[in-house]
Structures are given as C-alpha cells and as structure tokens.
Amino acid sequence: MTTKDARCIGLSKRHLFRLKKKIKDGKKITLEKKTVNKMMKIR
User: Fold this and answer.
1) Whole-angstrom Cα distance, residue 40 to residue 22?
2) What is the pLDDT of residue 40?
3) Rounded CA gap, 25 and 10, in Å?
4) Alpha-carbon distance 5 to 12, whole Å?
5) Are 3 and 13 in contact (CB under 8 A)?
6) Which long-range contacts (CB under 8 A, 24 or more apart) does 36-43 make?
7) Residue 43 has what pLDDT?
8) Rounded to whole angstroms, how far apart are CA atoms 29 and 43?
9) DSSP 8-state code for residue 5
10) pLDDT tens-digit readout, 1-43
11) In this structure, what DSSP letter does residue 10 have?
C-alpha cells in the first residue's frame, strides 16, 4: 500500500509506516476493527 492509498482511505502516514516497520521486523501486528474496515475499502 502506498502513502497515497493510505491517505485516501483515512490512515495517517505515520500509522502506515508503523505497520510496515512491524511487518518488516517480523513482529505481531494487531489491528483495530476501525483500521481493518478502512483497509477493506481499497479492494
């Protein structure tokens, strides 16, 4: 997901970078229902 896509669905740039960093580091990510619903909009 690009920064532009994240902004379109309502995720902040900072939140996107935090999620990407956790994924790269292999850490477990937990998403709130609100965030998941926003991400599902890009389909």
Assistant:
1) 20
2) 84
3) 24
4) 10
5) yes
6) 38/9, 38/10, 38/11, 39/1, 39/9, 39/11, 41/9, 42/1, 42/5, 42/8, 42/9
7) 59
8) 21
9) H
10) 888 888 888 888 999 999 999 999 999 988 899 888 888 877 5
11) T
Q: How far apart are CA 7 and CA 17, in angstroms?
A: 12
Give the pair of three-digit tokens for residue 31. Answer: 């998403």
Length of the chain: 43
Amino acid making up residue 28: K
Query: CA 21 to CA 38: how far, in whole Å?
Result: 19
Structure token pair of residue 43: 């389909």
Q: Which residue has the tokens 């909009």?
A: 41
